[in-house]
Specification:
With 204 residues, this protein is mainly beta. It has one domain. Helices cover 6% and strands 44% of the residues. The protein is built from one helix and 14 strands; from the N terminus they run E-E-H-E-E-E-E-E-E-E-E-E-E-E-E. The strands form four sheets. Strands 1, 2, 8, 9, 10, 11 and 14 form a seven-stranded antiparallel beta sheet that branches. The two termini are 14 Å apart. About 4% of the residues have low confidence.
Length: 204
């Protein structure tokens, strides 16, 4: 989680991907630092600070990029309509929580959606998304960690490959706040699954 100068950032992230074979046995584990918060994450924090007393300061506001790449203003929108962003996507819901895709293009700060979404289902090329699980903050010394996890499974008749993961947050609109490229890509064989965990980390 160190930056180029060797200084530990105050806000960071990491991800863990555990791949299970069709018998439920672990066959692969990936642990990596995630350094790919995108600009919408900063915009979301800015908006939180503008909200107070059930509404927000309408003279200053945050602009978000929605999944179409359009700028959407939060001006005049009452908290928590936009102020409260949620990650708790239910099974099959792809507008909040962890999602996966097939695009290995490098992340840029202005990315606003996953490169090439893998949709939910059992048709060819799809994966079945379980509900997101948001665990409580854990504290260890001066570090606080909040894990967000989701299980994706291959219920198709052919292998499915994913090479990117992302975290979507839903308020009045859906925005992407994290995206990471997985290299090498992860291949899920028929009947296999992957537990993906994003860990949001704050260092005191």
């Amino acid at each position: 989680m160190d930056d180029a100068k060797g200084v530990t950032p105050n806000i960071g992230a990491a991800y863990e991907i555990t791949v299970f074979d069709k018998d439920g046995k672990v066959r692969q584990v990936i642990n990596e630092d995630a350094k790919c918060y995108v600009m919408n994450f900063s915009r979301m924090i800015r908006h939180w600070f503008l909200c107070s007393g059930g509404s927000q300061n309408t003279s200053i506001y945050a602009n978000f990029k929605n999944l179409s790449g359009s700028i959407v203003s939060s001006a005049g929108v009452a908290y928590p309509t936009v102020g409260s962003f949620k990650l708790d996507g239910l099974a099959g819901i792809l507008t909040k929580g962890i999602i996966v895709g097939t695009d290995g293009t490098a992340v840029t700060a202005d990315d606003y959606k996953i490169g090439s979404l893998i949709n939910n289902g059992t048709d060819a090329g799809r994966l079945s998304y379980d509900a997101n699980v948001i665990a409580a903050f854990t504290e260890s010394g001066s570090t606080m960690t909040m894990p967000v996890s989701r299980l994706v499974s291959n219920g198709t008749s052919n292998p499915v490959v994913f090479s990117e993961i992302a975290l979507y947050a839903l308020g009045q609109i859906t925005i992407m706040v994290l995206r990471d490229v997985i290299s090498p890509s992860v291949t899920l064989g028929v009947g296999e699954s992957a537990l993906i965990v994003y860990k949001l980390i704050i260092n005191g």
